[in-house]
C-alpha cells in the first residue's frame, strides 16, 4: 500500500502541492506560536540595579495581607504608607541613613521636549546622594550643588545644557555613565525632598542583623538585603507582569492561529480528496475494496503530512526568532525576551499537523470508500445535493454552542464579553459553524445575489450553484479572513466608541485639568485652581479599594476619591440606586459588579494604604464599560494625590476667562470636554492595540495565502471542463473572463458570509453593553473589510487566472 501511495503521489504531485503548502505553513505557524509561548514562561534572573552597592535597604511594606479560611490573600497596595520619622531616627543610631526619592521628569511643553533633546521622554529623578549605590560615577563635570543644577545619566546631553522641565529650568553640570536600566536625572537632596517629601525607602549603612533588631515587631517595614534589594528598584514586578502579558498575548494568538491553521489544512486536504471522485469511482469499478481505497488515501495523507510537517517545523524554527525581535521592537516584550530553543513546540506542531492531515483526508476517504461503484461513478459527474450528516451535526453543534455560551454570558456576567480573551475567541465558534455549513449557505446566497448579465453571467451562476462544495471550499478562506478582520477590529472599535460615548455622557464639566507631569497636582497648583473665579471645581484622586468576596477572594476595584458636592455638579454618574449626595466619610459608592451592592448594606474594605474600614453603601452605579469605579471621600483615600480636576463654568461667567486663569497655573494641562472625550477613544493601551494587530496579521497572512492556494487547486482541477468550453466555441479571452467572474463571485460570497458572522458576533457585544447600561454603538469596520475583501479578490484572481491561462495552452483536441 505504501508503494502504491508513493506512485500516486508522484503521478498526481501537482494536486498534492496545495495540501503540502497549506500544511507546511500551518505547522510553521503553530511552531512559531509555540516557541513564542515557551519563551514567555520563564524570565531571566534579575539582580539588584539601583541598590546593587547598598548594604541594607529599608522599605515600607506595600503588600496587603488578609487572612481567610483558605489561607492568606495578598495584594499590592497602590498607596503604601511612607516610613515614619521615628523609624528613620531609630535607624540613624546604627549608621548613615540615605533617604531615597523617585519622581518623573517631564518637559514643560509636553512629551516632545526641547528641540534636539528627545531624551527627556522617560526620565526619572533621584537625589544625588543615592547615585553611589548603583553605582553611578561621574564621567564629566561635577555633582549638583544648587537647586537648578542636575546630573544626567547617558550621553544624550552634556555639561552646560539647559533643560526646561515641569520642575523648572535646570542646568546640566555633570554626567554619569548609562547603566541601562533607567534614564536618571539627579537633583540635589534638598530639591528632591521638595518634590517628594515622603520617604518610602532608605539605605542604611549598618549591619543587617542590627537593623532587623531595631525594627523587630514592625510589620509595616521590610528589610532588604542580598538579591531582595531588587524589590526596591522601580517596578520590581515588571518581569512577572511582562510574562503575564506575553502569556495572554501569545496564548490568544496561538489559539487563533491553531484554529485558523487546523481549519485551513483540514479543509484543503478534504477538498483535494473530494476532487478525486472520478478516480475513486473508477477504482471501485475495477474491483478495489473500500478498505484498500481508505488505506491508500490515508497512506498518501501520511506521507504528505509527514513531509509537510517536517518542512513546517524547519520553517517555524527560522521564523520564530524574527517574531521575537518584532515584538521587542514594537514594545510588546521586554528587551530580554528571546524566542527559540524549546523542544516541545516542535512535537506539538508536527503531530498536530500530521493528525489534521489524516483527519482532513480520512473523512472524504471514508465517504468515498463506503459508496458503491455505480453510485461513485454517478457522483463523479455532479456533486451530491445533500450535505453529509456529519457536517450537519458538527455545524449545528457549533452554532448551538455559540448561542448557548452567549446567552449564558449575557445572563450571568455580561462584562465578560468585553474582555479581550473573550471577544478574540468567540468569533471562532461562529466562523467554524459557517465554514462547516458553507455549502448550504452558499446556494441561497448565490440564488439571491448572483445576477450577472450575458451568457458568461449565466455560466457563472450555474457553475456556482452546481458546484456548491467547490464554491464553499473557495469561499471559506475568504469568509475566515473577513470574519476575523471584522470581528477583531469591530470589537475594538465598538468598545472604543462605547467608552467615548460613556465619557461624553458622564462629563458635565466644561474643562478637565490634569497635571503636566502625569503624577499629582502640587498643593500650590491645586489651591490656585480652587480659587479660579467663575469656576466650579471638583478635584478627584485615583485610588483603589479591596474587599473579600465569598470570604476567600480578595478582589480589587479601582476607585476615585472626591468631595460629594462638587462631584455631583461636575459629573453625571449612572446611579441606579441611592443618591450620590449621601456619600460621606462613613460610606462608599459601588458598582453593580460588587458581590454586595444594595443601598444601606455595610461592606468591609481595605483602603489604598491597607487600612481596613467598614463602610455603608450610599449609592450604586451601573457597571458600564468598566470605567465606572467605586467612589469614596478623600478621608478614605490616604496617600492618594489629586490627579484630575473637573472645572464647570458658573452661570454668567466667561469660559474664555476661566480657561485663561487655569492656563496661568504652573504645571497643569487644560483639556476642553471635546478634547477629553477624544483622548478617551481609541483606547490608549498600545500593547492591546499591537497585540490585536499581531493576532489579526498572522491569521490574515495565513488565510490570504490559503485563498491563493485553494484557487490554484480548484483551477488546476478544471482542465477537462475548460477544454470542453473551448470545444463548444468559447475563446481563450472569454474563458479567462469567465474564470475572473467566478473568482470575484466566490470572493463576494465568502465576504458576505464573513460580514454576517461579524454582525452576529458584534451583536452579542452590543447586547452586553446594553445590559451593562452603557452606550452600545455597533461599529463595523467597513473600510478594513473593503481592503480585506479587495486583497482576497486580487489573490484569488491572480491564482485562478494564472492557472487557467496555463491550462489553456495549445489547441484543444479532445475532452
Describe this structure in words.
By secondary structure, the protein is of the alpha+beta class. Helices cover 52% and strands 16% of the residues. Strands 14, 15, 16, 17, 18, 19, 20, 21, 22 and 23 form a ten-stranded mixed sheet that branches. The radius of gyration is 33 Å and the shape is elongated.
Number of strands: 23
Kindly state the percentage of residues in helix.
Answer: 40-55%
Through-space gap between termini: 31 Å
Count of alpha and pi helical runs: 23
The pLDDT mean sits at: 81
Structural class: alpha+beta
Principal-axis shape equals elongated
Unreliably modeled segments: 109-119
> What is the strand content?
15-25%
Radius of gyration: 33 Å
| Major β-sheet profile | 10 strands, mixed
Task: List the SSEs and their pairings.
Layout: H1 2-11, H2 13-39, E1 56-60, E2 63-66, E3 73-76, H3 85-92, E4 97-100, E5 103-105, E6 123-127, E7 138-141, E8 149-153, E9 162-165, E10 168-176, E11 184-187, H4 189-195, E12 201-204, H5 208-214, E13 221-224, H6 238-274, H7 277-285, H8 290-329, H9 344-369, H10 373-381, H11 389-412, H12 420-436, H13 438-449, H14 454-466, H15 468-506, E14 511-515, H16 523-530, E15 535-549, E16 553-562, H17 564-570, E17 575-578, E18 587-591, E19 602-606, E20 612-621, E21 630-632, E22 642-649, H18 655-663, E23 668-672, H19 673-679, H20 686-716, H21 719-727, H22 732-771, H23 782-807
Parallel strand pairs: 6-11, 8-10, 16-21, 18-20
Antiparallel strand pairs: 1-12, 1-13, 2-3, 4-12, 5-6, 7-10, 8-11, 9-10, 14-22, 14-23, 15-16, 15-19, 15-22, 17-20, 19-20
Helix pairs in contact: 1-8, 2-6, 2-8, 2-9, 2-20, 6-9, 6-12, 6-15, 6-20, 7-10, 8-9, 11-12, 12-15, 12-22, 13-15, 13-22, 14-22, 15-19, 15-20, 15-22, 15-23, 20-23, 22-23
Amino acid at each position: 500500500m505504501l508503494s502504491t501511495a508513493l506512485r500516486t503521489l508522484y503521478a498526481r504531485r501537482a494536486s498534492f502541492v496545495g495540501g503540502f503548502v497549506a500544511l507546511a505553513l500551518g505547522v510553521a505557524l503553530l511552531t512559531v506560536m509555540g516557541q513564542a509561548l515557551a519563551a514567555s514562561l520563564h524570565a531571566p534572573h534579575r539582580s539588584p540595579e539601583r541598590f546593587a552597592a547598598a548594604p541594607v535597604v529599608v522599605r515600607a511594606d506595600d503588600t496587603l495581607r488578609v487572612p481567610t479560611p483558605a489561607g492568606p490573600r495578598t495584594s499590592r497596595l497602590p498607596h503604601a504608607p511612607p516610613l515614619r520619622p521615628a523609624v528613620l531616627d531609630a535607624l540613624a543610631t546604627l549608621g548613615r541613613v540615605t533617604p531615597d526619592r523617585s519622581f518623573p521628569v517631564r518637559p514643560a511643553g509636553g512629551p516632545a521636549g526641547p528641540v534636539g533633546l528627545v531624551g527627556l521622554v522617560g526620565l526619572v529623578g533621584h537625589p544625588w546622594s543615592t547615585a553611589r549605590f548603583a553605582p553611578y560615577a561621574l564621567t564629566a563635570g561635577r555633582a549638583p550643588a544648587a537647586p537648578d543644577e542636575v546630573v544626567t545619566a547617558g550621553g544624550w546631553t552634556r555639561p552646560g545644557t539647559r533643560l526646561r522641565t515641569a520642575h523648572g529650568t535646570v542646568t546640566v553640570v555633570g554626567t554619569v555613565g548609562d547603566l541601562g536600566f533607567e534614564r536618571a536625572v539627579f537633583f540635589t537632596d534638598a530639591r528632591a525632598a521638595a518634590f517628594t517629601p515622603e520617604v518610602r525607602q532608605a539605605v542604611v549603612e549598618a549591619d543587617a542583623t542590627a537593623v532587623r533588631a531595631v525594627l523587630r515587631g514592625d510589620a509595616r517595614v521590610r528589610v532588604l538585603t542580598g538579591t531582595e534589594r531588587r524589590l526596591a528598584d522601580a517596578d520590581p514586578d515588571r518581569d512577572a507582569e511582562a510574562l503575564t502579558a506575553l502569556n495572554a498575548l501569545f496564548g490568544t494568538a496561538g489559539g487563533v492561529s491553531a484554529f485558523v491553521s487546523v481549519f485551513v489544512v483540514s479543509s484543503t486536504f478534504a477538498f483535494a480528496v473530494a476532487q478525486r471522485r472520478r478516480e475513486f469511482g473508477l477504482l471501485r469499478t475495477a474491483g478495489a475494496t473500500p478498505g484498500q481505497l481508505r488505506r491508500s488515501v490515508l497512506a498518501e495523507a501520511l506521507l504528505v503530512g509527514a513531509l509537510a510537517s517536517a518542512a513546517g517545523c524547519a520553517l517555524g524554527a527560522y521564523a520564530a526568532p524574527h517574531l521575537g525581535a518584532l515584538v521587542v521592537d514594537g514594545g510588546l516584550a521586554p528587551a530580554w525576551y528571546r524566542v527559540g530553543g524549546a523542544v516541545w513546540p516542535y512535537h506539538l506542531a508536527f503531530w498536530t499537523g500530521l493528525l489534521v492531515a489524516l483527519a482532513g483526508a480520512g473523512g472524504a476517504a471514508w465517504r468515498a470508500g463506503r459508496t458503491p461503484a455505480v453510485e461513485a461513478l454517478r457522483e463523479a459527474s455532479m456533486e451530491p445535493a445533500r450535505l453529509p450528516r456529519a457536517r450537519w451535526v458538527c455545524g449545528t453543534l457549533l452554532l448551538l454552542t455559540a448561542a448557548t455560551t452567549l446567552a449564558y454570558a449575557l445572563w450571568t456576567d455580561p462584562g465578560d464579553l468585553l474582555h479581550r480573551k473573550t471577544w478574540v475567541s468567540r468569533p471562532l465558534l461562529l466562523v467554524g459553524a459557517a465554514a462547516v455549513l458553507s455549502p448550504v449557505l452558499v446556494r441561497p446566497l448565490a440564488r439571491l445575489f448572483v445576477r450577472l448579465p450575458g451568457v458568461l453571467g449565466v455560466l457563472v451562476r450555474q457553475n456556482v450553484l452546481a458546484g456548491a462544495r467547490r464554491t464553499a471550499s473557495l469561499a471559506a478562506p475568504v469568509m475566515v479572513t473577513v470574519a476575523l478582520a471584522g470581528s477583531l477590529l469591530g470589537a475594538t472599535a465598538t468598545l472604543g466608541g462605547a467608552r467615548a460615548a460613556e465619557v461624553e455622557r458622564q462629563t458635565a464639566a466644561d474643562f478637565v485639568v490634569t497635571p503636566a507631569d502625569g503624577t499629582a497636582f502640587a498643593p500650590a497648583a491645586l489651591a490656585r485652581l480652587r480659587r479660579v473665579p467663575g469656576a466650579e471645581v471638583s478635584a478627584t484622586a485615583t485610588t483603589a479599594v479591596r474587599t473579600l468576596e465569598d470570604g476567600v477572594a480578595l478582589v480589587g476595584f479601582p476607585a476615585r476619591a472626591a468631595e460629594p458636592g462638587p462631584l455631583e455638579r461636575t459629573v453625571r454618574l449612572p446611579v441606579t440606586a441611592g443618591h450620590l449626595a449621601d456619600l460621606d466619610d462613613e460610606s462608599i459608592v459601588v458598582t453593580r459588579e460588587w458581590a454586595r451592592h444594595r443601598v444601606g448594606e455595610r461592606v468591609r474594605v481595605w483602603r489604598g494604604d491597607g487600612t481596613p474600614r467598614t463602610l455603608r453603601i450610599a449609592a450604586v452605579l451601573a457597571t458600564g464599560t468598566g470605567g465606572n469605579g467605586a467612589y469614596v471621600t478623600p478621608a478614605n483615600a490616604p496617600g492618594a494625590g489629586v490627579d484630575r480636576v473637573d472645572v464647570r463654568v458658573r452661570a454668567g461667567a466667561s469660559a474664555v476667562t476661566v480657561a485663561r486663569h487655569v492656563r496661568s497655573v504652573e504645571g497643569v494641562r487644560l483639556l476642553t470636554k471635546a478634547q477629553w472625550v477624544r483622548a478617551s477613544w481609541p483606547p490608549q493601551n498600545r500593547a492591546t492595540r499591537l497585540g490585536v494587530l499581531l493576532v489579526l496579521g498572522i491569521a490574515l497572512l495565513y488565510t490570504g495565502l490559503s485563498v491563493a492556494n485553494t484557487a490554484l487547486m480548484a483551477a488546476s482541477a478544471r482542465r477537462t471542463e475548460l477544454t470542453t468550453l473551448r470545444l463548444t466555441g468559447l475563446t481563450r479571452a472569454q474563458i479567462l473572463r469567465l474564470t475572473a467572474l467566478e473568482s470575484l463571485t466566490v470572493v463576494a460570497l465568502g465576504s458576505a458570509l464573513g460580514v454576517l458572522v461579524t454582525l452576529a458576533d458584534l451583536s452579542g457585544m452590543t447586547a452586553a453593553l446594553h445590559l451593562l447600561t452603557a452606550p452600545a454603538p455597533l461599529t463595523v469596520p467597513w473600510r478594513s473589510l473593503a481592503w480585506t475583501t479587495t486583497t482576497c479578490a486580487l489573490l484569488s484572481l491572480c491564482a485562478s487566472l494564472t492557472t487557467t491561462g496555463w491550462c489553456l495552452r495549445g489547441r484543444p483536441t479532445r475532452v
